[in-house]
Design a protein that fits this description.
It comes from Prorocentrum cordatum. The chain has 338 residues and is α/β, with parallel strands linked by helices. The protein is 36% helix and 14% strand. The protein contains eleven helices and 13 strands.
Length: 338
């Protein structure tokens, strides 16, 4: 009810129970109620990325158990190879999280560590070898790359990964398929955000969505994911004038720019959906997003926490992409679930 006295909701104990077994239904306008942003006056409902990602991982684990049981010898597990160049501590933490998630669902994860002084030619040769490895379904080159020479060749390095093994979804072929509305392997964070949006139950068709940030890995493919789901999308960036005015009009706001607290709570439209992709560590050590969470939750109908919102979904979508690639490589078809 627009104009109703608002109340701040207590933290969610779980997640809106939706069936992610077949996501095709989320791309049918008939699957939703009336269009437009509903506003029941409740504020600050948390979109629990941890709970939603756990649900997706459970689906994937059951799917792989079923595949294994159907084979006399159990078959081989899906294989993911993570290539780490150098010894970056933060990268190792992220990789450990991915490996743990793989183990939980039944994906074989291998870490291939290369030295800091690895040349572009050596890294490219490594990737080409993995392209030909029939036990490797997915290849992930951990970013950032440590040296200037590797960074200068980053596009060539990512494009050398075979498109059907590009579980990050960054290869031009996979981005192009998203542009033409025929997605294959999809960029993990934007696809994870779509699951978070679906969990609210709000009809995305015609929803006025604003994406803050135009990066190749999040902002641009996020725009394409929203368009695929029928949303009306505006993307803003560092050259956009009057950011506040644009944000105030957003029924759904997705922020991914790496600027702690850039979006102020008072800018948020009453009852809006707010998804904060940013994760920034302050000097105090505290992790915060790109949105001022405490003030924003007083106005938002739904909002993601940082941490615990988008991050777990990025990992869940990496698992989904790996299984999708595995199914295509083993001629079992491509799953539409999760």
């Amino acid at each position: 009810m627009s104009g109703a006295v608002s109340e701040v909701a207590p933290p969610n104990d779980g997640v809106v129970k939706l069936n992610f077994q077949d996501i095709k239904r989320y791309y049918s306008p008939a699957s939703y109620g009336p269009r437009g942003l509903p506003d029941d006056g409740v504020r600050g409902r948390l979109i629990d990325g941890k709970a939603i990602s756990a649900e997706v991982r459970s689906i994937i684990r059951a799917e792989l158990e079923e595949v294994s049981a159907a084979q006399a010898d159990g078959g081989r597990a899906p294989g993911l190879v993570v290539v780490l160049v150098g010894n970056d501590a933060a990268s190792k933490v992220y990789i450990k999280q991915k490996q743990k998630a793989c183990q939980e669902v039944g994906i074989k994860s291998t870490l291939l560590e290369l030295l800091d002084d690895t040349s572009p030619a050596e890294l490219l040769a490594t990737i080409r070898g993995l392209n030909e490895d029939e036990t490797c379904d997915g290849i992930l080159v951990q970013l950032p790359l440590p040296t200037q020479s590797l960074q200068e060749e980053q596009s060539a390095i990512l494009e050398t990964i075979r498109a059907d093994k590009d579980v990050d979804g960054f290869h031009p072929f996979n981005l192009g398929r998203l542009v033409t509305r025929e997605p294959k392997l999809r960029p993990c964070t934007p696809f994870g955000v779509m699951h978070l949006l679906w969990s609210t139950g709000v009809n995305p068709y015609g929803l006025r969505c604003v994406v803050v940030g135009a990066s190749n890995h999040v902002g641009r493919p996020m725009m394409l994911e929203l368009l695929l789901n029928g949303a009306s999308v505006q993307i803003v960036h560092r050259f956009t004038q009057d950011l506040e005015a644009v944000v105030r009009d957003a029924e759904c706001l997705i922020v991914a720019c790496g600027k702690p607290g850039l979006v102020k709570g008072e800018w948020i439209r009453q009852g809006a959906i707010v998804i904060d992709v940013g994760i920034n560590r302050l000097e105090s050590g505290k992790l915060v997003g790109d949105v001022d969470f405490e003030s924003a939750k007083q106005r938002a109908g739904w909002i993601t926490p940082v941490p615990g919102g988008v991050g777990p979904m990025t990992v869940a979508m990496l698992l989904r992409n790996t299984v999708t690639a595995y199914r295509s490589h083993t001629n079992r078809g491509v799953s539409g679930g999760a």
